[in-house]
Design a protein that fits this description.
This protein has helices at about 15-30, 100-115, 200-215, and strands at about 5-10, 35-40, 45-50, 65-70, 75-80, 85-90, 120-125, 125-135, 145-160, 160-170, 190. The chain is α/β, with parallel strands linked by helices. The longest helix is centred in the middle third of the chain and has 17 residues, at about 100-115. The protein is globular and about 50 Å long.
Length: about 220
């Protein structure tokens, strides 16, 4: 296996079960040294996923879209058109075998990507994902500034190869998030790059993701 990371972009919506099956297949091949690590950029049809910590009460509208149980960490998430899903199949046995450091690297990669569009993404203790402050909107009931989620992160490992990854909202239908409590966190909203007033396309985001990748998840020698 070379030291390259293969970038794959799917132009059509990818059914969720097909994506999971391909990730599983690729992870086995990466572990065996038969294929390179990979970053897969795609979109899904509208659906909800339930991570290993999902609670039934957080699924507000169970009949709205298909719901898939997944073995990644986290709770409920929404995926759909206009949201860039980034499946990260990287070999942590070559990258330090430190899950906490790896997740922090993913977070910092998202933050750096958003920064290319002058969006300040931030991490909040106890709240999964990447958040943006919305000072132009009404504050929360306790008087603190409103913060909306713009990106989600959730991974699992198979023989130290990562599966799943992250999602960044470019221009999804934000109303679709109402069917769940995203990541089990109540009292906060969800936003997107276009919702923030930025005419960003999916291709724009893909270019930024590639440009910032090596600074945060460098390819092993």
């Amino acid at each position: 296996m070379s030291s390259m990371v293969e970038w794959i972009t799917s132009s059509e919506l990818v059914p969720y079960p097909d994506a999971v099956a391909e990730m599983e297949r690729r992870a086995i091949a990466i572990h065996a040294g038969e294929e390179d690590e990979a970053i897969w950029l795609l979109e899904h049809p509208p659906l909800y996923t339930a991570g290993t910590s999902a609670e039934v009460k957080d699924l507000r509208d169970p009949d709205r879209f298909p719901v898939y149980d997944v073995r990644r960490g986290g709770q409920y998430t929404y995926h759909g058109p206009g949201q860039r899903v980034v499946y990260v199949m990287l070999d942590l046995s070559r990258r330090g075998r430190d899950i906490r450091v790896f997740v922090e690297a993913l977070e910092n990669w998202v933050i750096a990507t958003l920064d290319t569009f002058n969006v300040k993404g931030e991490i909040r203790p106890g709240r999964v994902g990447v958040w943006v402050t919305r000072p132009e909107m009404a504050p929360l009931p306790d008087g603190s500034p409103r913060e909306d989620k713009i990106a989600a992160i959730g991974i699992r490992l198979r023989k130290w190869v990562s599966l799943h990854g992250l999602s960044i909202n470019v221009e999804p239908e934000l109303e679709h998030f109402d069917g769940i409590v995203p990541c089990g966190i109540s009292g906060y909203g969800v936003t997107s790059l276009v919702d923030l007033g930025l005419p960003v396309t999916m291709n724009d985001l893909d270019v930024a993701l590639r440009a910032t990748f090596e600074d945060h998840l460098p390819t092993p020698d």
